[in-house]
Amino acid sequence: MNAFKELVEWLKQAITAEEQFHLGYAAESSEFVRFNHAKVRQAGQVQQASLNLKLINDGRHADLGITLAGSPEVDRQRLAEGLQQLRETLPLLPKDPYLLLNHTAWQNRSEQAQALPDLDQVLADISHGAQGLDLVGIYAAGPISHGFASSSGAFGWHQANSFNFDFSLFHANGEAVKASYAGDAWDSAAFAQRLQHAREQLEFLGRPLHALAPGQYRAYLAPAALEEIVDMLTWGGFSAQAIASKGSPLQRLYAGDQALSPLVAMSEQITASLSPAFSRDGYPRSDVTLIADGRAQGRLVNSRSAAEYGLSTNGASGDESPSALQMTAGNLAQADILKQLGTGLYISNLWYLNYSDQPAARLTGMTRFATFWVENGEIKAPVSTMRFDDSVYHLLGSQLEALTAERELRLSASTYGARNTSSSLLPGALVKRLTLTL
Amino acid sequence: MFDKHPQLKQHFAALRTRAEFFSLRYVRESGQYLSVRKNVAEPPHLSRDEGAMLTVRLNGVEAYAATHDISLAGLQAALERAEQQARRIRPHALLDLRDQPVSSDIADYLSPELDQPFPSLSDCYQLLGAESAAVPKDERLVNWEVSLGTTHVEQIYLNSAGAELRQAQRFVFPGVDVTAYDGNDSQTRTLGGSNFGQQGGFEVISRFGLVGAAPRIADEALQLLLAPNTPQGPRDLLLMPDQMILQIHESIGHPLELDRILGDERNYAGTSFVKASDFGHLQYGSNLLNVTFDPNIPEQLASYAHDDDGTPANKQFLIRNGLLLKPLGGALSQYRSGLGGVANSRASSWNRAPIDRMANLNIEAGDQSLAQLIGGIEHGILMSTNRSWSIDDARNKFQFGCEWGQLIENGELKGVVKNPNYRAISAQFWRKLSAVGDASTFKVLGTPNCGKGEPNQVIRVGHASPACVFSDVDVFGGDA
Question: Which Pfam families is this protein grouped with (chain B) (predicted)?
């Protein structure tokens, strides 16, 4: 934090009276270990830190991302060069009618310095636990920091240590079960238990495959499967700009022309989540109720959309997607899932979803990892990979029978560019009819 | 250009290590993304990024450390972290690389027109603004955006065997999209965006046809809004190049990646329906199918002289006359599998290690003009511009959707249809290839957004293709 603060102080004295700035900061020191066939396939470390400088002057503004070197002198020099580049850029731009600045000097700090797992211990636990198993996956660990400061005196800092071991176990027949062990404190016994649970599921996958014809089936979507559907909706679904410009898959929900089941309630719950409680454009992030009783409520609004559409910002990110989405639980007990499903599909994961018809919220995607055929409340056999094509207004609307009472915290394992801190808290969903097409 | 080379070379020579082999890959990237949305200039997003990856091989075990600190002390510290990592993983390592050959090549590679200046930021905004203003006034046109992204990348690779490989590239990504809305349905038409990008300078924008495109794109969005849904049922399918690139990417490119076949990607990107034993034996498509790895088309996104492990890149046939010949596997995957391959070991940046990626993966032109392709179809549909893609983890069962559809009856193009989708199985689909367009239908395209790997990497890939016809494919429309 001190290195960031020093850069902020330097920048404050470097700007002129007419200039304002936002300065974002992101850093991570990450250990990555890839596994294949329960052995280490590739391993390494990544140390990176970057700034995002927004310079504002007379209604004009531009953003510059700068990778830092980790040396105070070099970093100050890079920031100075960046400031100069933006000073030369701003006069070339028109005034931005949608610039909305936050002049409050808000303060927000969150630090978690839990000791990180010892890699030797982690490798020993995985090696021991995976004996006789075909394990493949990735272990990622290390501190992640985010910061924000503005010329108005706002300051935010978010730092947390975490690990995420995202893995699959493969049966010799090619079927697989997916699992993860993530958090901030590695517990060898807890990990062994997680691995044992996955190992037990793997045994079911050794049974002969049950061939399914395209058609409509009762189905239970475990939280990881529901996460894939919800993730698709977060692609512009709740975005104020996407809703206004008719690019949202939930535009008919927000127009009041469609509704989901009254069981469905979703919110962006930043409070106590793993995500920073401030946005890159200088606003504290609020908790937002997005859907209640199956009907659209709030939307995610960043400062730009607030200015363009006359809304109040709730500190949403640049793309106005949720990063800590929660879905309200239902009343289906974990122990009753198979009984209530009766005969149908138990789907642990879905994969590679996309839209068949976006305005109709109609999605297609594949089953992947541990999908089972269930008869009279008993798992009978694994099911070969199948494609579904169905509307969210059916799956979470007219065909939704129940949501589970227990929810699962899903921590993102995404590492595009940097380790992701988003999460979701989701129940499982029992649906009366899921359409399989291929 | 390459101004960091002398300093890096000096630092590299001064590094101290007990590794039997080590390398340094330095990447500097600067980017600029400009857009005008509904006649309002969005603030520009600029970026400057640089760092280096040090890789060591210690007793046959490789490990890496990536650092943003490229001082001698920073590089030495990273090298030591990589060494430490190699020691820690040694008891658990999957691979023993003591005998794997390494590169000692010395070469430079430059994008075409790299020495030509690119239009200034003001000129770019003026161009984008003029195109945005050319969108007709129609209350059904609710959103539109004209954009231009440019990225400069310099990479310097040095290793302890003496390799010195430098490449400097400029990538250009123009795009236009327009959304029309009628109170219930919305339809978006795009040009470029995720379907187009090339290496070069301003000539890329000219080749792309950005100037004057917006009114046509807007008109097509309005046509789609008025169009009926695509009818359901089997039809002959004419795919234009801006959908062919997605078809190639998902159902030839990914399944032929050798690291997938070796199982590395099973936890994330997936596996493949292709087996190691299929090379040289599997009839992947009809005898009209000729697929090449071609790093030699100068403007294509992934043209280069060497990959990120230092392997020289040459044009290779992966599929010839429909027969599967070679996988997309770099030197390491070739060493592991004993199979042949290509120079496709690539990293998204300095902070990610090279893995098997698509690069330029193309379909060679055939002998039929577009008129002949259409004329040969009795009951069919033309589809253009990808908008939706979904395929299973073995890259077999797929469903793809396009923005634009036009029915074909008795050899003639008929009415426009919206929400054109089709689904099939890769292992069968390419055997239905019944006609291949000639050079007049061939387009050099690509995407900046191919995701894969753990940790995740998004990378630029090039695809060039003629228009192609597939017989008897299951097509269908949307709900609206």
Answer: PmbA_TldD_1st, PmbA_TldD_2nd, PmbA_TldD_3rd
**B86: chain A residues, CB-CB within 8 Å:** 43
pLDDT for residue B480 is more than 80: no
Please indicate whether, in this complex, the C-beta atoms of B41 and A61 are within 8 angstroms of each other. Answer: no
For chain A positions 177-196, those within 8 Å of chain B (CB to CB) are 178
- Mean pLDDT, range B67-91, rounded to an integer: 97
ipTM of the complex: 0.95
Closest-CA residue of A relative to B478 is: A357
* Structural domains counted in chain B: 2
Residues B89 and B191 in one domain: yes
Q: Would an 8 Å CB–CB cutoff place A376 in contact with chain B?
A: no
Residues 378-397 of A with CB under 8 A from B: 385, 387, 389, 391
Three-state SS for A36?
strand
What domain range is B346 assigned to? 233-476
- CB-CB: which of B82, B186, B454 is closest to A34? B454
- Final residue of a structural domain among B193, B226, B259: B226
Domain CATH for B184: 3.30.2290.10
Cβ distance B82 to A45 less than 8 Å, yes or no, reads: yes
Contact assessment for residue A368 and residue A351, using Cβ atoms and an 8 Å cutoff: yes
B196 and B258, same domain (yes or no): no
How far apart CA A364 and CA A253 sit, in angstroms, is: 19
| Same domain assignment for residues B299 and B376 | yes
What is d(CA B440, CA B207) in angstroms, rounded to the nearest whole number? 14
Is A368 in Cβ contact with B393 (below 8 Å)? yes
Residue B335 and residue B397 in one domain = yes
A-interface mutation test, from B54, B222, B392, most A Cβ less than 10 A away: B392
- Collapsed DSSP state (helix, strand, coil) of residue B278: helix
Q: Which residues of B touch A176 (CB under 8 A)?
A: 266
- Taking only the tens place, the pLDDT of each residue in B235-283 is 999 999 999 999 999 999 999 999 999 999 999 999 999 999 999 999 9
Residue whose tokens read 């590089």: B75
The reply to whether B117 and B258 lie within a common domain is no
Name the H helices within B321-387.
Answer: 331-337, 370-375
Shared domain for B120 and B253, answered yes or no, is no
Query: Quick one: which of B372, B374, B363 has its CA closest to B410?
Result: B374
Together in a domain, B199 and B262: no
Set of chain A residues whose Cβ sits within 8 Å of the Cβ of B83: none
For chain A, which domains are there?
2-204 (3.30.2290.10), 215-436 (no CATH)
| CB < 8 Å to A389, chain B | 399
Q: What is the pLDDT of residue B285?
A: 98
- Tell me which of B226, B253, B271 is where a domain ends: B226
B268 to each of A288, B204, B450, B456, how far by Cα in Å? 31, 34, 14, 9
Q: What is the structure's pLDDT at B263?
A: 98
B159 lies in the same domain as B29: yes
pLDDT in tens, A202-225: 998 999 999 999 999 999 999 999
**Closest by Cβ to A92, choosing from B65, B121, B142:** B121
Distances (CA, A) of A247 to A111, A241, B18, B144, B180: 37, 8, 56, 11, 10
